Structure formats: C-alpha cells, structure tokens
Amino acid sequence: MEYQRQIIRFLEKEIKTYTALALFFAKRDVKEHVRAGDKKVPIGPKFYKQRMKEAKKLVDELRRLVTVQISGLDKFRRMS
C-alpha cells in the first residue's frame, strides 16, 4: 500500500511538471517534433495537457484503490 502512495506522490509531481511545461510552451508558441523511436512526436502545450489528463486519471484510480484497501483492512481488524 505504501508503494501506491509513493506512486500517487510521483504522479502529482509529474502533473505539476506537465502544467509548467504546457504553460511554457503555450507562452513561447513552441510546436516541436521530437524523435521517439521510429516516430516523430509533436511536443507542445497540447501534448502535455494530454499527459496531465492521463496522470490525473491514474491518480484518481489509485486513490480509490488505496481507499478501498484501507477500508477493507479496517473491517478485517474489527473482525479479529
């Protein structure tokens, strides 16, 4: 369960980073393409906004999972 909390903290930091990068690229009006393997991937505000959405979904799912696990442990402890 502790590793899940660490993952949540990490993703929250990533969201802050993505927010900062999206703002930076929006102000500079940067639209670059970076090579990722065989593909050229566009890097710009839209790219980081999509990453933020994905990370926020993961954080929400992990928080729900942690909450369910904690409530399950509480029920188990009461039964013992």
Question: How are the elements arranged and paired?
Answer:
Layout: H1 2-28, E1 32-36, E2 39-43, H2 45-79
Antiparallel strand pairs: 1-2
Describe the structure.
The chain is an alpha+beta fold and 80 residues long. The chain has a two-stranded antiparallel sheet with strand order 1-2. The protein contains two helices and two strands; from the N terminus they run αββα. Helix 1 runs antiparallel to helix 2 (45-79). The model has no long low-confidence stretch (mean pLDDT 78). The chain starts with a helix and ends with a helix. The protein has helices at 2-28, 45-79; strands spanning 32-36, 39-43. 78% of the residues lie in helices and 12% in strands.
The main β sheet shows up as: 2 strands, antiparallel
Q: What's the pLDDT, averaged over the residues?
A: 78
CA-based gyration radius: 18 Å
Portion of residues in helices? over 70%
What global shape is seen?
elongated
Arrangement of strands in the largest sheet: 1-2
How many beta-strand elements? Answer: 2
Low-pLDDT parts are none
The domain count comes to 1
Give the terminus-to-terminus CA distance.
21 Å
Order of helices and strands: HEEH
In DSSP terms (H or I, runs of 4 or more residues), the helix count works out at: 2
Please state roughly what percent of the residues sit in beta strands, choosing from under 5%, 5-15%, 15-25%, 25-35%, 35-45% or over 45%. 5-15%
Structural class based on helices, strands and sheet pairing:
alpha+beta
